Amino acid sequence: MDFQVLNVGEKMRSWFYGNSLIEDGKLKLVIPIHPLFIALPYLLKNQDKFLELDEILTDEEQPAIGLLEKNKQLLKTIEKVADVKNVCDSRVYRYNSQLAMQWIQTRFERIKLCLQEEAALHKAILDSPDVLNRYTFGVLSDYLSAEMTASAKQFLDITDIKCEETVDMNMYGKRKTDEDELSKEQPAKKPRESIAKKQLQKASKGTMSISGFFAKKTK
Asked: What GO cellular component is one of the record's annotations (predicted)?
């Protein structure tokens, strides 16, 4: 069995271990992974011709990929995603899209079954086949390349989320038009004077202005 190591952690997390406090709260999770998921992108890249495994599993950035050449599980199951031929003393492989999609479908069904049996999901997800399929595919797509994810989505007939709420733009436009017409018909209202201003004007009747008070009087 092959495994992948995932680093899981948050900045604000620590652990109590006996009477001690571990400041670094990061965890390393060891999870089993099928080696075909790792080999699929390399098979897809060389899908046009038969090649030996050491010619397919080459990567300058990830030279350790060559270790899969001797992986027993990969050698045992590679026929599920590729055509295989014996040429002289060599064994050659070529990616088969139909076989690969069928194998991905089996993994999809297995993941979905596990999710249902564990009953760890919200009832709203489990009760809706489409939602459950989208959730399952989201888990599966983490192990697929972008190109293969698109092909698998179409093969498995995974539907996108449908937006049930729609806006009637015609009604909105009619409403704006009616409001504009109503504003044209009604005359503009004059600004109302404040009560304090009215009282000040009333109290000032019959009094002399400040400039008139200081002006020179003529004899």
From this structure: nucleoplasm
Higher pLDDT, 104 or 1: 104
pLDDT of residue 89: 86
Phi then psi dihedrals of residue 9, to 5 deg: -175, 160
Tell me the angle at which helices 35-45 and 146-155 cross, rounded to the nearest 10 degrees.
Answer: 100
Task: Output the pTM of the full model.
Answer: 0.65
Q: How many CA atoms lie within 13 A of 176 on its CB side?
A: 6
* pLDDT tens digits, one per residue of 116-130: 887 678 888 888 899
Could you give the C-alpha distances from 110 to 36, 103, 137, in angstroms and in order? 15, 11, 11
- Alpha carbons 150 and 110: distance in angstroms, whole number: 20
Using the predicted structure, report yes or no on whether residue 193 has a pLDDT greater than 60.
Answer: no
Which whole number is the average pLDDT over 166-184? 45
- Tell me how far apart the alpha carbons of residues 137 and 112 are, in angstroms, rounded to a whole number: 9
**Between β-strands 3-8 and 27-32, what pairing exists: parallel, antiparallel or unpaired?**
antiparallel
Provide the β-strand partners of residue 30: 5
CA distance 1 to 3: 7
58 in Cβ contact with 112 (< 8 Å): no
Closest alpha carbon to 53 in 36, 32, 28? 36
Rounded CA gap, 27 and 12, in Å? 13
